[in-house]
Write a structure and sequence with these properties.
With 281 residues, the chain is an all-alpha fold. It has a single domain, classed as MetI-like fold, CATH 1.10.3720. 74% of the residues lie in helices and 0% in strands. The protein has eleven helices and no strands. Helix 8 packs antiparallel against helix 10 and helix 10 crosses helix 11. The radius of gyration is 22 Å and the shape is elongated. The relative contact order is 0.16.
Length: 281
Amino acid sequence: MSNFKLTLGIVLLLLLLVLALGGPLLAQWLFPGQDPLEVGTWPRWQLPSPEHPLGIDEAGRDAVAVILNSIWPSLAIGLVAGVSALIIGVTVGFLSGFVGGRTDAGLRTFIDMFLVVPSLPIFLIMAAYIRRWNLLSMALLLGLFGWPYVARVIRAQVISMRERPYVDLARITGAGTWQIIFTELLPNLLPYLGFSLAGAVVSAMLTEAGLQLIGLGARGLPTLGFLIGQGLAQGLLGARLYGQMLVPVVLLVLMFLAFNLINMGLEEKYNPRLRGTVEDR
C-alpha cells in the first residue's frame, strides 16, 4: 500500500532536483553571459519589471538568474553532508550494536560525547582560520556533526535485530560476520537508513542556512541561505524587493518539506506502531 506522504515527498524532491540541475542552464538561456558570482551590467537595485521579474540586486545582476544558480549548491551541501553523516553513523552504529561488550560501551560513550559538543563555537573558531569556505568543506564539516544521531538509531536497530531467530539460524549454518551484516541485517535496515538520511539532509541544510545568516557560511557559491542572509543585511524588504527575499525562503521551505515528508512517510510505512495507527484512520 502506497504512503501519500512518501509519494508526495519523492515527487516534490524530484521536481526540486530538476530545477536545481536545470536552473543554471535556464538562467544562461534567459540571461546569456550572466555569471551569478560576478558584478552584473544592469543598474543595481531595480524594482521588478517584465524583463526582470524579481528585479536587479545590489551587484547589477538579475535576481532570477542568481536564485536559479543558488538552488543546487544548497541541495548539494545537504546531500553531501547527509551522505557523510550516514556513512559515519552506520559504521559506528553497526560496530557498537553488533559487536557489543566493551566496544559498545566505548562507542556509546563516544557517540554521547559528540552529541553534547556544541557545534557553533567550533564553527566560530574555524571561521577565524579558514578564510574561504567552499561547498565540499562546509558539507563535510556539517556531516561530521550530524553522524551521532544516525549512529544512535542504527545501533538501537542492530541490537534489536542481532538476537532474532533468522540471525541465529545464519550463525548456525556457518555464515560469517560480514555475511550476516550484508545479507541479514542491512536489507532490514534500509528503511531506517532512508529516514536517517532524510533527517541528516534536513539538519545540514538548516544548519548551513543558519550559519549563512550569521556570516559563517560558504562564500564560494551563492546558496539560498546566503541570499537570505545577504538580503537581510542589505535591507531588501525596505527597498521593496520582496521577491528576492521571499523566493529563496520558499525554495528552502519546499526542500525541508520534501525531505520531512519522505522521513515521515518511511517511518509510517515501516514502523509497526505508526503503521497500525495510520492504517486505522
